[in-house]
UniProtKB/TrEMBL annotation, chains B, C:
<feature type="transmembrane region" description="Helical">
    <location>
        <begin position="261"/>
        <end position="281"/>
    </location>
</feature>
<dbReference type="GO" id="GO:0022857">
    <property type="term" value="F:transmembrane transporter activity"/>
</dbReference>
<feature type="transmembrane region" description="Helical">
    <location>
        <begin position="65"/>
        <end position="89"/>
    </location>
</feature>
<feature type="transmembrane region" description="Helical">
    <location>
        <begin position="34"/>
        <end position="53"/>
    </location>
</feature>
<keyword id="KW-0812">Transmembrane</keyword>
<feature type="transmembrane region" description="Helical">
    <location>
        <begin position="288"/>
        <end position="307"/>
    </location>
</feature>
<dbReference type="GO" id="GO:0016787">
    <property type="term" value="F:hydrolase activity"/>
</dbReference>
<protein>
    <submittedName>
        <fullName>Monosaccharide-transporting ATPase</fullName>
        <ecNumber>3.6.3.17</ecNumber>
    </submittedName>
</protein>
<dbReference type="Pfam" id="PF02653">
    <property type="entry name" value="BPD_transp_2"/>
</dbReference>
Automatic annotation (TrEMBL), chains D, E:
<dbReference type="Pfam" id="PF00005">
    <property type="entry name" value="ABC_tran"/>
</dbReference>
<dbReference type="InterPro" id="IPR003593">
    <property type="entry name" value="AAA+_ATPase"/>
</dbReference>
<dbReference type="InterPro" id="IPR017871">
    <property type="entry name" value="ABC_transporter-like_CS"/>
</dbReference>
<dbReference type="GO" id="GO:0016887">
    <property type="term" value="F:ATP hydrolysis activity"/>
</dbReference>
<dbReference type="GO" id="GO:0005524">
    <property type="term" value="F:ATP binding"/>
</dbReference>
<feature type="domain" description="ABC transporter">
    <location>
        <begin position="22"/>
        <end position="262"/>
    </location>
</feature>
<keyword id="KW-0547">Nucleotide-binding</keyword>
<dbReference type="InterPro" id="IPR027417">
    <property type="entry name" value="P-loop_NTPase"/>
</dbReference>
<dbReference type="InterPro" id="IPR050107">
    <property type="entry name" value="ABC_carbohydrate_import_ATPase"/>
</dbReference>
Amino acid sequence: ACGSDDSSSGSSAAAQTGKVAAVIKGLDNPFFQTMESGIKQAASTGGTSVTIQAATAITDTSGQADKLSGLAGQDYKCFIINPITGTNLVQGLAQISAKNVPIVNIDSPVDADAAKSANAKIATYIGTDNTAAGELAGKQMSTILPGGGKVALIGGISGDVTSGARLDGFKKGIASNISIVQTVAADWDRQTALTKATDILTAQPDLKGFFVANDDMGLGVAKAISNAGKTGRIKVISVDGNKDAFEAVKTGDLSAVVAQFPYVIGSMGMEACEAAMQGKTLPQSVDAPVQVVTKDNVDKALSSAPKPGESYTDPFAELLK
Amino acid sequence: MTTTRTDTATPSAPTAQRARAGGLIRWVLDPANLADWAALVGLVVLVVVFQALNSSFLSAGNIQSMLVAAAILVVLAVGQTFVVATAGIDLSIASVMTLAAVVFGTVFASGAGLLVAALAALATGALVGLANGLVISKGRITDFIVTLGTLSAASGLALIIADGKPRTIISGPLLRLATGHVGIFGYSFLIALVIAVVAHVVLFHTRFGTYVLATGGNAEAASATGVPTARIKTAVYVIAGVLAGIASILLVARVGAAEPAANTAFLLNSVAAVVLGGVSLFGGRATIVGPVIGALLLTALVNGLTLLGVSQFYQPLSVGVVVVLAAFLTRFQK
Amino acid sequence: MTTTRTDTATPSAPTAQRARAGGLIRWVLDPANLADWAALVGLVVLVVVFQALNSSFLSAGNIQSMLVAAAILVVLAVGQTFVVATAGIDLSIASVMTLAAVVFGTVFASGAGLLVAALAALATGALVGLANGLVISKGRITDFIVTLGTLSAASGLALIIADGKPRTIISGPLLRLATGHVGIFGYSFLIALVIAVVAHVVLFHTRFGTYVLATGGNAEAASATGVPTARIKTAVYVIAGVLAGIASILLVARVGAAEPAANTAFLLNSVAAVVLGGVSLFGGRATIVGPVIGALLLTALVNGLTLLGVSQFYQPLSVGVVVVLAAFLTRFQK
Amino acid sequence: MSDTTAAPAVPLIHDVPADAILTVEDAAIAFGQVRALKGASMHARRGEVTAIVGDNGAGKSTLIRCISGVHAPDSGRITFDGHEVEFKTPHAARDAGIETVHQNLALVEDLTVWQNLFLNREIVRGVGPLRLLDRRAMRSRADEMVSSLAVNVPAVGSRVRRLSGGQRQAVSICRAAGFASKLIIMDEPTAALGVQETARVEELITRLKSEGHAILLISHNFAQVLRLSDAVWVMRAGRCVAGRRTAQTDGDEIVGLITGARAGDIPVEAA
Amino acid sequence: MSDTTAAPAVPLIHDVPADAILTVEDAAIAFGQVRALKGASMHARRGEVTAIVGDNGAGKSTLIRCISGVHAPDSGRITFDGHEVEFKTPHAARDAGIETVHQNLALVEDLTVWQNLFLNREIVRGVGPLRLLDRRAMRSRADEMVSSLAVNVPAVGSRVRRLSGGQRQAVSICRAAGFASKLIIMDEPTAALGVQETARVEELITRLKSEGHAILLISHNFAQVLRLSDAVWVMRAGRCVAGRRTAQTDGDEIVGLITGARAGDIPVEAA
Ligand SMILES: Nc1ncnc2c1ncn2[C@@H]1O[C@H](COP(=O)(O)OP(=O)(O)OP(=O)(O)O)[C@@H](O)[C@H]1O
Ligand SMILES: Nc1ncnc2c1ncn2[C@@H]1O[C@H](COP(=O)(O)OP(=O)(O)OP(=O)(O)O)[C@@H](O)[C@H]1O
Ligand SMILES: [Mg+2]
Ligand SMILES: [Mg+2]
């Protein structure tokens, strides 16, 4: 990042005239808070000013669209967006593209067909495929349950896209000796996850593991298991990569976490915007790092959080050099 | 005993004439009527403040996008007003919209035309509304719990029909509906406006409207006068359902997809718009203008806060405070 | 003109005596009182059905976990009952719980003891409740809109204080609170039970309780009789706030963390429990037993559906249908 | 029949005239534990004022609520205008030609005076589904109707909530009188009225009678009953214990019948 | 003062006695456009029944609502028991010793009869913060109170919603009479009552008077006013246009004053 200093002094002139707007998902989820701090961190390193707006809830599709349309009429030089669904932001994006302002899509992808039909141009996409993350979790489950067995799935709000993709990925990733006995929705809420996991433990006495669609709910499930005195005997894998979840991996409450590093997604998104405003050509799509964190590598993950413990490629940092 | 009007008849008769003659101004300033204007005053204050802080607030582009953003809420608030006027509440209005959207999406994806899909959405809303209305009026179950049940059931049905997945809808006419405009008025806002005007006429210039207000004001008295209160109660839920169906089409056009995850913010906002509009939740008194302005106020609030770049954590706080302040203006209400 | 009681006094006086003598059975079967039992009947039916379908439903372990899971909702429903009894509604109850939880977590993490943190949570609830109450009773603003504003403001404050992040709370006493039990009764359920008993005594055996019901039944008449209705209105919101504070401690103990999560399900469920419990949203009539049973019913419903392995898409549908069916039992209500 | 203490007048109960517009036979209704009517029988004739008197809680209002379709009696028969009727709703009774001024007034407080007067009788313009209210016509008609009865005339555009006790009652009576019906029931119409207003209502009743309407009048004011009515029924404890032609009775007899000091015509005490 | 048509009796208005328990001077109040009181003055003496009569909408109820703390008058002075008072709430008026039976009855429909009777007067047991209601004591006291007035006694445990019109009024009167006060205001207390009940209430009023209470009685029943009252005030269009000792007036004069056929003692028409 030090190499980018001189170019960013050049770009900071542009950056002063060019503010960046970011519209991300739900407010009360730590995943997006981490993403936000990633954006802010990168913005302050690059000397860019940024306005970050978020939907009031993870289901607030039209509210998020309203916020983007509000910002679209303003004089922003680049937009970072994390749409709740593939299509809900398309109209705002069309408005932005019409003014030839670059759009950086992070985390959840914009539906390609919809974008095309609305003439919305996405400069680059940075994120992890949630299906792929779920698949990794499935593979990991197969690894820690070599003998197979019954597992239960805890999703977010029923019908939520992210949750659906993670659960579908998990189903793809597991070996055939693992059977999914139940799928419940816990609304992205730790307390609900705890209650439902407790109920499932009663219903399925020989359950071997849980896959949980995010860390917060995963911690609730872990609590249910420890309340039942079965910590360690029932495996829990969740997706996200929050610090609390790493701690839980360390204590053994969680067996593994598929970490998506929202911090990195956010900061790469910001870097992409800076590069775009400098007129650089962006790669079409960049995979954000994904990592399976288990007891073996958790110390490293913890010490480097919110960034990944292992190195990853950041093409935008290269561009900004 | 005198049977002609004696001049002791002074206290109210001339007052009435004066009121008629003195006209609008005095009427508007009467504290009892101020409540009807609370939302408007709130909206004007808000607009002035936001414009002072950010000059692009009143730019044509932003006004247009605010109006379009408000359209769905306006339609829902009008539907909610009918229900609230009968002293009821429709908690299922947002879920019914979701269900209707999913039905719309499914029918459309199955290859049927746009019109068929739209009719299916309206029919869905009407049916759920009818179910609500019949259970409430015939079954004599509290509206709150019935529509809470429907809230849950309708979102469940939406999930089942959509198999939990959003369905992208790409259609030229829908796109035009979402983006087309006449001057600063987007098509979707114009639709909402027409609905509001029709609703106003129905509520204040037809028998049905009078019956709605009578049912809400005093159901016992109304039914002793021969007003078919059960049928009126059923009808308002059907109206709310149909309007939820119309809103669903606007929603699908806006977000470009039919999604089964319920948008709960619309529920509370629809009631908030109605209450900010000076309509009593105890029924019997209602306006259409009020809730429409209430909906605009809520939309302008979020838009303005976004334009000002108020940090995301401070937005809910600001919304809460402004809503209470706006409501302060309704304090003159009986 | 006779001034002694003539025997024409037959129609009601002996009836009253008979009712007193005939006692409970007749009283229970009187349609007018059946509503009070609706939730109980619903609960019993539900338990029988679930037990028939899955024998582990009535296992000691499952009963214990249901009761613990119900504790928070019971506490909130009791608070909501006081507000509803005055013909009000507290939409902010769940957000206040969130805010109190975050305050609890922040104070606790700052190194203050458990007791200080708990007191801070209660004080937070009481303060927000006081603000609600004063604005509603002195400002004469509709409860719905005030508490809707508070709902938004409190969750915003919670986000700000917590900086949007959950805070893990590790504390031995809290862990015991969450997991300890006497027989099948978890500590947290026992706390909820004690609160319910106290609330019952307050509502039916103190002046204050009578004033609450009088205020809800006919505020004008009550205040003409000299009941300080404004103070009573304020008091019920403070009670709701304090109970939300207590609920927040149970919540933090249960999940082991203080989170700024929205908890909207608790809001609707707290009102649903109250209504299922036969309490009229129009105020003036209330019980505490009803809402407590209503809360148990809602908890048992979700528990049973999960035990039976009902698919996630079918759960909302089933919840909706069962809630309406349970409410059918309240149809005998006036 | 218990020992009849030589009644001076003819008991009406055994003498249902062929031209009775309304006949109630053995109507009974219970609200939970309270048996408000225990088999009440009475009748009223065309072109006459028939009064019902009785103690508070005797069941007078309940009886007329059964007649006007508010309650459905648990048992008993009601014959109106030659047909046996079973009104399911007040609407049905109104359609059949029964107009009622209820004791609890049955006004919608949040509607204006004219809206209340024309409730369910709205004047509309236009045709088909496009019939709109003729607000102006209703207002001016309402103004006339109210001025004919009230002394301190309330503005017809003001909400009923703001009227004084007597003003409300005037509105209520206006409504019933304004629309020609075969039978007009008035439950204590002058209870809240002042002297002048009472006189006007009494005039109104006399006029309605002379126009051939039948009127059923509940009143605690004996002077009024004796002045206005042609026949009078006495209710006690859910029954009509006696009926008399007004001309053949006097205040003392009626008071005796009400208090039970005088036995009625039916064996009420035996039940 | 307009030309006084030789009034036979002494106008009370110019003769405020030193021992008046209540004096109202020039009370005025307006509700929006409606000036319900336009400067009303009157007074009442200890141990007497003071009647107020007047047309519907004359402002009688509004006047007594000002006295009992429901409304605060816009202007004017009220002196009670020797002190100028400004009751902010009904509670304050009650504490000062004014008990009111309102025309709209002011009962809480969903509470039982005994709860209504003892509202804000609950009998409690225990000490300090642990004072619990003595439900049994209140029930049995309530039973006594109601039986003394009503003929068809409603069960004191039943909700007021279910009572007949007269039964409610009886409950309302019981409440005011049951608790000794300096001034008892009754707004049309017998309007809905039957003969027997009316007689009992009149007895009650006479008894209260003989016990030294002052009573303010609003009634449209002249016979009753002449029978019970010691002084009578006539209201017209928001003013007390005349006051008379009852012994020195008669029905005709009062009717004339009410209708305006006879000019009052103050220049009302000039305003
Ligand atoms: N809806 C009801 N539910 C329960 N009891 C009722 C109901 N309506 C009337 N009653 C009871 O029935 C009896 C008769 O009441 P009703 O109103 O007919 O009396 P009434 O003769 O009209 O008396 P009043 O002269 O006081 O108006 C009373 O004891 C009353 O309490
Ligand atoms: N709260 C109010 N708001 C508006 N107008 C009111 C209000 N209360 C009373 N009025 C008006 O004031 C006038 C006097 O009313 P009030 O109730 O004092 O009459 P009253 O003399 O008691 O009549 P009645 O004999 O019919 O009871 C009436 O015209 C009435 O419409
Ligand atoms: Mg009656
Ligand atoms: Mg009055």
